[in-house]
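RETRY 2/3 - previous attempt timed out on the joint model. Re-submitting the same 510-residue input unchanged.
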Amino acid sequence: MNAARQNGRPSGRVPLYRQVEAELLRRIRAGTLKPGERLPTEPELAAEWGVNRLTIRQAIGELARAGHVTVRQGSGTHVAAEQLTVEYALPTLASADADVGSATAMPIPGQEDQTETLVEVSEQDAFPAAQEALGLSEPLLRVDTLVEAGGQPLLMSSYWLHAERFPGFAGHLADRIAPLEVLREHYGVNLRHAWRALTATLASSADATLLDIVPGSPVMFREGANVDEQRVPTLYLQRRIRGDRIKFTMNYSTA
Amino acid sequence: MNAARQNGRPSGRVPLYRQVEAELLRRIRAGTLKPGERLPTEPELAAEWGVNRLTIRQAIGELARAGHVTVRQGSGTHVAAEQLTVEYALPTLASADADVGSATAMPIPGQEDQTETLVEVSEQDAFPAAQEALGLSEPLLRVDTLVEAGGQPLLMSSYWLHAERFPGFAGHLADRIAPLEVLREHYGVNLRHAWRALTATLASSADATLLDIVPGSPVMFREGANVDEQRVPTLYLQRRIRGDRIKFTMNYSTA
DNA sequence: ATGAATTTGTCCGTATGTATA
DNA sequence: CTATACATACGGACAAATTCA
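RETRY 2/3 succeeded.
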């Protein structure tokens, strides 16, 4: 029983787990704990500070959500690798085609080793947001993809469209995933942006599994719709972008 | 000791606190728990499910970070009020002055009841990000402001500049807060955008206090720098925008 | 390939502090 | 001032995933 703290509350105003969190973050930033290095185990850290393991877990949980460490059961807790912040340079900001995280083939320009893989094609359930955006009450075809770079997920993308209007759409996905290209090449339909929205949310359990992050991690949530030549809403899409890996940047300096 | 679950692991594959979280969210979405309504206390919920209070707290913690409920010590846990998501319409996307969350006087166009108040003017500590952006190693003047609308915080803004270059700067803030206007009117310096960056992060304790949210809530983090006519970096700024209240939207439909 | 050891994940019980009504 | 309700913290136990001999 340390005189400096008792059950229920420490002497100071800052909770113990916040103190531990701050100290660990200090060690990471100072390089005492290097990227990739494994932290001491939770019982060891608990012994070092003379606190309960749960207190350590609270501190590490915060660090994990913020992306400073990665925690894996059975393996341990490691300092997160140097986050190569992918700079997304907006070419001019003037063209609607080149907006933030466009639905075109190259989600992140300049990142050459990126791959986009098909995760799932489904049609089962109602999805209100998509149905509202497309003005339809019927079930829609849903396509989920995952974009990775450097061996790690960058973002997950989902889009919805009316399957009956584009028969055999799913079959064309073997060649190319990008919906705009499939629609143009196989159906002669050219889509353009209707609207896009961007906000910050937290990763759900499902998001976290796919993106290989902890549930509750910050993600940029981007959604939007595209219309065809007759201005009929045809494509609704969502994108969840790892906040710890991607930073959109706009440079005006050289202009 | 329920046969359906034992210490350490429930019978199913989904953790207890996830089940509780999902069920509470279901009640909120179904309207069984209405916005503003108070949830049963943690011990009551624990008794209802026959689980430990810690399990309830884990579930509620996730809901709080996601913005579905607000938790206040001594008061209770309430279903979050209907979040009037302030849509930030980007006028054209063409002009650099009208970019996302610009540093001008009206952070959120069309939101008339918004107020920007001065929180603090300080100079004490070193701030590496600002010093690097401005290419200075000296202490900088820091100005913190808070933008509110509908009686609730929308975003917090901080900017840094070299105090010695602009003597008496802090004194001018009584009239107007926006740095670009103060610099133009009192020093004849016209700044323009050098760069802007945008990503998603989690609210720190300090952020959370000011923004009236739970630490760990999602925020859009925006930073950038402005340069003067000689292209000298003069102003560095950060902005933390509540993800639960603000959604940036871009409309191309009528163009 | 197998099994043991290691490490994190989940859950229970209890106690006390602090903010709010 | 008192009661209520959440915040923090301790201790113990077992499950599940990973690692490694």
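Residues 6-9, 41-43, 57, 71-77 of chain B lie near DNA strand D (CB under 10 Å from a C1'). Closing ticket.
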